[in-house]
Design goal:
Blueprint lengths: L7 H20 L3 H4 L3 H14 L1 H125 L7 H29 L2 H5 L2 H16 L2 E6 L8 H22 L3 E9 L2 E8 L6 H5 L4 H11 L4 E7 L3 E9 L1
Parallel strand pairs: 1-2
Antiparallel strand pairs: 2-3, 3-5, 4-5
Helix pairs in contact: 1-3, 1-4, 3-4, 4-5, 7-8, 8-10
Length: about 350
């Protein structure tokens, strides 16, 4: 309910005007002799109802003074006293009723505001749950795609190498048994060297798959070295210049936080390669106010506000969730044609 807030001058002026009007009507009608206080009481009730306790008391005072001056002889002092008591009682009762009404209206207003906040919060929670469900489905799909990718690499690369090694070993076995065509020692040595090379290639393929799953440098040398290594790998693969700056000579960070920051950088670089059309990436790692700050800046086309707020952008949502687990956040800022800045803040 919307209430009009009146100024004190308006309410007191209204009280005086109502008292004068009641006096004029009383003097000009038979009420002056029959019921001289009736209109005064009506005026006091109206003013108290509209203005509250203080204007009602002021109207009572005005009415009492008018009654004493104009009607004291006809009604006597007892009549004036009775009128004053009745008027005060009316003012008190009406003001109490008005106070209770205002409290009720205030309580109703607070309840409506609370209901609006609850509805807004419920809608926000529903949106967040929907985003989490979509993210969970996306992560499950990404996990299956990663498994398919790993299986394909194992089959195509390692399987091919193992088949070639098996064929070479079978050839050497026939030579040893004397069932194959005679070969000179030099030819056999070349076959053995070729087989050894295949074994080395297979070992390197296994190492490459293991590094893609989790780089060993993250566990053995720490987060800073892992970030530098990842940027070098990205520069060689994507042909995008990468620069890394950090004033942290020693960084003691638990495994969970290190993994989260490393994965966020991987996702940022993936987005740069897919969408940014950038030629340079600058990365800065520092500490500020008990927070670890990772800032990645590119010179690409710049992310738009619509892309940032898009709930179906699972890469951005995944980065936010990784930081949110530790009470941190990820902020995206982009300008058309000037690139994108991704800032990661995680408490340490």
């Amino acid at each position: 309910m919307i209430r009009v807030r009146r100024s004190p001058l308006w309410t007191y002026s209204a009280a005086l005007a109502a008292s004068i009007l009641a006096l004029v009507l009383t003097l000009t009608t038979p009420l002056a002799t029959d019921s001289p206080f009736l209109l005064f009481i009506a005026a006091i009730v109206i003013i108290t109802r509209l203005g509250g306790l203080r204007p009602g008391l002021f109207a009572t005072l005005c009415a009492t003074m008018a009654s004493i001056y104009f009607f004291l002889s006809p009604v006597g002092a007892f009549g004036i006293t009775g009128f004053l008591l009745i008027a005060l009682l009316i003012v008190i009762l009406v003001s109490r009723d008005l106070t209770a009404q205002r409290k009720s209206e205030r309580a109703q207003s607070l309840n409506e505001e609370l209901d609006q906040r609850v509805a807004q919060r419920t809608a926000e929670l529903q949106d967040a749950n929907q985003q989490l469900r979509l993210l969970a489905a996306h992560l499950q799909s990404a996990r299956e795609e990663e498994r398919t990718h790993i299986a394909r690499e194992i089959h195509d690369e390692i399987g091919t190498l193992m088949t070639a090694i098996k064929m070479d070993l079978a050839f050497l076995g026939r030579e040893i048994n004397g069932t194959g065509s005679p070969k000179s020692p030099d030819a056999l040595r070349e076959e053995i060297n070729a087989t050894t090379k295949l074994v080395d290639d297979a070992i390197e393929s296994v190492h490459q798959i293991a590094r893609e799953l989790r780089p060993g440098v993250l566990d053995h040398l720490g987060l800073r070295a892992a970030l530098e290594w990842q940027l070098q790998e990205f520069q060689e693969r994507a042909k995008i210049e990468c620069q890394f700056h950090s004033d942290l000579d020693e960084l003691h960070l638990d495994t969970a936080r290190s993994t989260a920051v490393f994965r966020i950088l991987q996702e940022v670089l993936t987005n740069v390669a897919r969408h940014a059309r950038a030629t340079r990436v600058e990365t800065n790692l520092r500490k500020e106010d008990l927070h670890l700050i990772l800032e990645v800046r590119d010179n690409g086309q710049g992310i738009s506000e619509a892309q940032i707020s898009n709930v179906n952008t699972f890469g951005l949502l995944g980065m936010r969730e990784r930081a949110h687990v530790f009470g941190g956040d990820v902020v995206f800022h982009g300008l058309p044609g000037e690139g994108t800045v991704v800032t990661v803040r995680i408490p340490v």
